[in-house]
Amino acid sequence: MMEFSAEMIAAQLSGEVVGDKQVKVHTLAKIEEGHPGALSFLANPKYEHYLYTTRSSIVIVNRSFIPAHPVAATMIRVDDAYGCFAKLLELYVAGKPRKTGISPQAAIDESAKLGENCYVGAFAVIDRGATIGDNCRIYPQVYIGDGVKLGDNVTVNAGVKIYEGCVVGNNVVIHAGSVIGADGFGFAPNASGSFDKIPQVGNVVLEDDVEIGANTCIDRATMGSTRIRRGVKLDNLI
Fold this sequence. Notes:
Shape: elongated
Strand content: 25-35%
Distance between the termini: 33 Å
Strand order of the largest sheet: 8-11-14-17-20-25-28
Mean pLDDT: 96
Structural class: mainly beta
Radius of gyration: 24 Å
């Protein structure tokens, strides 16, 4: 994180500075683990007592908050402390260097199509006829199957497997170890008392702005599509 003054942060968040407008921070910290040069926030009242002892240089608080004791840190009053801190976290992540380039250890079929500014990590496999949009990040050991389509700005983290024919929209994040498009659990009893597997000939469609947690499995449909609608957020291990 670059260095920012309280005045600069308040302007970004439409907040009001209480204390030293010129004090600067270069990192983020929990209020109970604060240290000089750190920015923290207070949204939950049960953490209020940490405000009076924190060593953080700046603390973001709700505009309605009235401290019960003197506060050494500079405070920035905003309408929604939690929401504003989340916004700053987004800026912090966006400021990190982005991985670029295609690893020579990646295996990309000659019929696959990659958009502009994509990153493909070591030992990733992009199979026959797959289409990858612009600004995608495909981390090491990912498998993208035949005919898979990825939109723009898709992040596929390490070890993800996307089976053939699945479709992923724009701005989608799939976390490590998830499996998209494995067979659904379809078996039919037969005359001999065992089970015949029902072929699963559908696919999975992840619409725009979806986020899938780590080690989550989304099975393909028997026919048609298993569809995760726009904006859905799934946690880990689903």
